[in-house]
Amino acid sequence: MMTKTIRRSGERVRWWTYLLLGLAVFACLFPLYWMFVVATTDTATATRLPPEIAPGGNFFHLAGLVFTTVPFVRSIVNSLIVAGTIAVGHAVLCSLAGFAFAKLRFPGRNVLFLIVVLTMTVPTQLAVIPQYMIISSLNWVDTLQALIVPGLASAFGIFWMRQHLSTTISDEILQAARIDGATTWQIFWRIAFPLVRPAAFVLGLLGFVTAWNDFLWPFIVLKSPEMYTAQIAIKALQNSYSIDLGLAMSGSFLATVPLLVLFVFVGRRMVAGIMDGAFKG
C-alpha cells in the first residue's frame, strides 16, 4: 500500500516541474556566474555586445590588485567581526525579548509589542540622522561598535521569536518549572531557548547576511581604511571618474565567497529551521 502511494505521488511530478525548477536555479546562479566572468576580464570585454559568456584569464591579476589597492583582508575580518556579533545578538537578544512578549505577563505588554511591530513600517533611512547623532555623542564614529550595537536586535527578530515561542512552548511547562523553583532566566535558558534554537539559528543567519551586505550605515560612520567593512572596501575600489568593472567585480566576488562557504556548511540547518517553523505554524 505504501509503495503504491509513493508511486502515485511520484507520478504527479511532470517534466515541466523539473523545467521550472531548472530555470529557477539558472536564474539564481547566473548572476553569480556573470559576476565571476566580469571579474576575469576588463571593462571593455564586460561591455562588449554580444557579451562574453566564458571566463577570461585575469582573475588572479585583478584579485591581486584588490588586495593591494585597499586593505581587503582587514575589511573581510571587520565584516566577520561585525556580522558574527550581530548574528549572536539577534539569536540571543531577540529570543529574550520574544520570550518576554510571549510568556511573561506585565503591564503594557501588548502595547509595547504593538509599538515594536509598528517600527517595522518605518524606513530605516529615517533613523540615520538621529542614530548618527547618538553614535557621535558616544564618540563611536569610525569604530566597529557603531555598526554592532544598533544591529544587535531588530523588530523583525523580536516578532519572529515571539511567534515561535508562542506556538512551541506551552504555559504548563513553564508553570511546572516555576513550581520546581526555576527562575525566569533558568526557564528561558534551559527550557525555552533550546526548544526554539533552530528558529534562533535561522534568525542569526539572516542577521549575519544582512550585516555583511549592509552598505549605507557603514559608509556613513566609517572614515579610515583600516575600519572598512567588505562593502565599503569594494566602494573604495571605484575611481571618482570611472569604474573598472573587472576590479570591482573581483572585489565583489571575493566578498561573496565567505557567504557561499557559510551556506555550504549551514544551508541544511537553515532550511530545517525554516521548515520546523512552517510545520509548527
**What coarse outline follows from CA principal-axis ratios?**
globular
Number of helices: 15
Q: Give the end-to-end Cα distance, rounded to a whole number of Å.
A: 30 Å
Percent of residues in helical segments? over 70%
Characterize the largest beta sheet: strand count, sense, and whether it forms a barrel. none
Give a brief outline of the structure.
Helix content is 74%, strand content 0%.
Describe the protein's architecture and organization:
The chain is globular. With 281 residues, the protein is mainly α. The model is unreliable at 1-7 (pLDDT under 50). The longest helix is centred in the last third of the chain and has 36 residues, at 245-280. The protein has 15 helices and no strands. The chain has helices at residues 2-11, 15-39, 43-46, 59-69, 72-103, 109-118, 128-137, 145-148, 155-168, 171-179, 184-195, 197-213, 216-221, 230-236, 245-280.
List the helices and strands and how they pair.
Elements: H1 2-11, H2 15-39, H3 43-46, H4 59-69, H5 72-103, H6 109-118, H7 128-137, H8 145-148, H9 155-168, H10 171-179, H11 184-195, H12 197-213, H13 216-221, H14 230-236, H15 245-280
